[in-house]
């Protein structure tokens, strides 16, 4: 059994799109590693140190059962995908990376399902959390990033977005839509954590336990009980960070985009336009660098040699060998001179820039230290503030040499 399809090399990552063999192997291995090693360690600590959660505070939520079904569905989708590879898709041949990816996906989602059930039924002897553990959140985030990376191959013929391979691309596109919907729902439900007890449930359990074990003896005890009930009513509104996100956004929005000041509104719009332009330049700069690499000075230098080689008979016929040799030598010397000037100026710029940055940072640091120790007009927090601002100011300067 071959590991990748014929005429496809595993180590060639990009060829008008991400290599599907490479992408499947790396992403499945990464999800498996996170689930197996970190998830296994979390399960071990939970089984050794955790206690069972009282069933009275376990919420009965349909969203939790939807999480379970989606996790099982992702494992089944990988198995169905493997079966379709061998019966319907493409050349009806199963390769090694497909088997490896299916096994890793099934094991990874199986461990994530076990973690989901363990976090619902057990708790560590610490402050109760307000959501799922770090392992599950990282696992779902990586899975969501993995399906979104597929859009980088929108124009690639090796993937299914262009539907140039008929039934194969249609089946692959349907499976991709199923994967995307399942993973997106798992990611969203993971942030909400519908199957875990919330903070109000824990306070309610603690208050009931105290009422069962303590008997009020006088009016003061009754007053304390009333105060606890008022505190519980106040804490009832404390939910997840993502709760009432639209309400919070509407509260903050007037400070970000003022309604009554046209000048401030224009400044906000200008900031958004600049941010969008910077992000667009971040996309265009690598493309521009690619074009420079394909049509750079070295290619122009080689083109003269190629023209001379292709017209070698004409050069010999007209006795222009010495003339062409002289032109080639002059082109090499001119290129070497320009390259030397470019490298020397770049090194000089980087050296002067490093001297300016380090000297400024040293002088500012010594001055702040003097004001803290001698004049006592600044505090240690002011020194940290100065260091943070000056480093943020110097970070863009590090790119000047590169762009130059």
Describe this entry's structure for a reader.
It comes from Priapulus caudatus. Keywords: Cell membrane, Membrane, Translocase, Transmembrane, Transmembrane helix, Transport. Residues 301-404 form the ABC transmembrane type-1 domain. The protein is an all-alpha fold and 404 residues long. The protein has three domains: 20-204, no CATH class; 244-295; 296-403, no CATH class. Helix content is 73%, strand content 1%. It has 14 helices and two strands, in the order αβααβααααααααααα. Strands 1-2 form a two-stranded antiparallel ribbon. The longest helix is centred in the last third of the chain and has 55 residues, at 321-375. It is extended.
Total DSSP E strands: 2
Q: Which ranges are low-confidence, i.e. pLDDT below 50, for 5 or more consecutive residues?
A: 214-219
Distance between the termini: 51 Å
**Percent range of helical residues:** over 70%
Number of separate structural domains: 3
Number of helices: 14
* Largest sheet geometry: 2 strands, antiparallel
* Series of secondary-structure elements, N-terminal to C-terminal: HEHHEHHHHHHHHHHH
Q: What average pLDDT do the residues reach?
A: 76
Category from helices, strands and their pairing: mainly alpha
Rg, nearest Å: 32 Å
Strand order of the largest sheet: 1-2
Oligomeric state of this protein: single chain
- What is the molecular shape? extended
Subcellular location: Cell membrane
Membrane topology: Multi-pass membrane protein
Organism: Priapulus caudatus (Priapulid worm)
Protein name: ATP-binding cassette sub-family B member 6, mitochondrial-like
């Amino acid at each position: 059994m071959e590991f990748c399809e014929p005429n496809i090399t595993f180590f060639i990552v990009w060829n008008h799109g991400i290599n599907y063999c490479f992408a499947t192997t790396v992403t499945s291995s990464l999800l498996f590693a996170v689930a197996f090693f970190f998830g296994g360690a979390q399960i071990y600590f939970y089984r050794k140190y955790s206690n069972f959660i009282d069933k009275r505070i376990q919420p009965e939520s349909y969203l939790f059962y939807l999480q379970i079904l989606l996790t099982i569905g992702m494992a089944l989708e990988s198995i169905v995908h493997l079966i379709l590879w061998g019966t319907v898709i493409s050349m009806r041949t199963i390769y090694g990376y497909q088997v490896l990816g299916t096994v890793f996906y099934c094991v990874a989602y199986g461990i994530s399902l076990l973690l989901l059930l363990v976090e619902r039924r057990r708790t560590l002897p610490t402050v109760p959390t307000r959501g799922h553990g770090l392992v599950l959140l990282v696992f779902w985030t990586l899975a969501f990033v993995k399906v979104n990376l597929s859009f980088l191959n929108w124009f690639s013929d090796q993937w299914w977005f262009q539907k140039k391979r008929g039934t194969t691309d249609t089946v692959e596109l349907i499976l991709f839509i199923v994967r995307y919907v399942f993973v997106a729902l798992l990611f969203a439900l993971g942030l909400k954590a519908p199957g875990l007890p919330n903070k109000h449930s824990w306070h309610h359990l603690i208050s009931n336990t105290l009422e069962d074990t303590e008997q009020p003896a006088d009016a003061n005890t009754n007053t304390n009980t009333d105060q606890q009930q008022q505190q519980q009513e106040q804490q009832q509104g404390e939910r997840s960070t993502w709760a009432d996100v639209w309400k919070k956004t509407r509260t903050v929005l007037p400070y970000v985009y003022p309604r009554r000041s046209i000048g401030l509104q224009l400044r906000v719009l200008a900031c958004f336009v600049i941010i969008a332009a910077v992000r667009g330049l971040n996309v265009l700069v690598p493309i521009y660098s690619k074009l420079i690499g394909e049509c750079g000075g070295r290619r122009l230098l080689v083109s003269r040699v190629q023209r001379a080689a292709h017209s070698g008979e004409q050069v010999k016929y007209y006795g222009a060998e010495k003339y062409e040799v002289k032109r080639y030598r002059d082109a090499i010397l001119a290129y070497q001179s320009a390259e030397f000037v470019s490298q020397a100026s770049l090194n000089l710029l980087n050296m002067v820039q490093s001297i300016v940055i380090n000297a400024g940072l040293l002088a500012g640091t010594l001055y702040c230290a003097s004001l803290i120790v001698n004049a006592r007009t600044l505090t240690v927090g002011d020194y940290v503030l100065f260091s943070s601002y000056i480093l943020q100011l110097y970070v863009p300067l590090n790119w000047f040499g590169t762009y130059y």
